[in-house]
Amino acid sequence: MDQPRAARSTSRTPSARWGYVSRSVGRYGAVSVRLVVYPPDSDPRDLLSADLFRFFVPCAVVLGLTGALALCAAGVPVGSAAAIVLAVLVPVGVFMGFRAAPVNRRAVSLWSCRSAFHVDRAALAAEQRAESLAHVLQSAAEDYRQGRSPHAVLQSEWQAAFDDITSGQARRG
């Protein structure tokens, strides 16, 4: 039986969405790591919006091409099919962008890029720092999700990483 609206809990479930890390190896051995840490005091719904928005563009390209091809196969002219797809995807993207903006505007990032063929100690140190922070955050989030630690532990690690990156940016800039 559905609870009356007034009796429902209004508490927010703590989120384990601290941000993300992306790693890539490019052409000619360029190794890059980008760590993005969302603000720890963000609303869980805004964190979800930021995570979803990160995947929107690649998904929109695939869905847009698939939708346009399906419409063309159904006999819709190419120009009209493109207009229909854009009329659906652009408003969704704008809405998601506005929902993700409060988190993305305040997020901090740590980035490193180095050559796999040339040893640059500063670039290697930046990569190791980003990897270390990412590992701590990923482990804390996994422990929280699995019930091995309370949200306070994740929150503490998350805040420490956010403060570490923020203070590093303040020293440089």
Brief characterization of the structure:
The protein has 4 helices and 3 strands. The chain has helices at about 45-75, 80-105, 120-145, 150-170, and strands spanning about 20-25, 30-35, 110-115.
Describe the 3D structure:
- This protein has 173 residues and is of the alpha+beta class.
- It contains four helices and three strands; from the N terminus they run ββααβαα.
- It has helices at 44-73, 78-106, 121-145, 151-172; strands spanning 19-25, 30-37, 108-115.
- Strands 1-2-3 form a three-stranded antiparallel sheet.
- Strand 1 and strand 2 (30-37) form a beta hairpin.
- Helix 1 (44-73) runs antiparallel to helix 2 (78-106) and helix 3 (121-145) runs antiparallel to helix 4 (151-172).
- The longest helix is centred in the middle third of the chain and has 30 residues, at 44-73.
- Mean pLDDT is 87; it is low at 1-11.
Write the SSE topology.
Elements: E1 19-25, E2 30-37, H1 44-73, H2 78-106, E3 108-115, H3 121-145, H4 151-172
Helix pairs in contact: 1-2, 3-4
Features:
4 helices; 173 residues; 3-stranded antiparallel sheet
Low-confidence stretches: 1-11
**Coarse shape:** globular
Share of β-strand residues: 5-15%
What's the main sheet like?
3 strands, antiparallel
Number of strands: 3
What string, H for helix and E for strand, traces the elements in order?
Answer: EEHHEHH
Roughly how many Å is the radius of gyration? 21 Å
Mean pLDDT: 87
* Total count of helical runs of at least 4 residues: 4
Helical content (DSSP H or I, runs of 4+): 55-70%
Structural class based on helices, strands and sheet pairing: alpha+beta
> Order of strands across the widest beta sheet?
1-2-3
N/C terminus separation: 57 Å
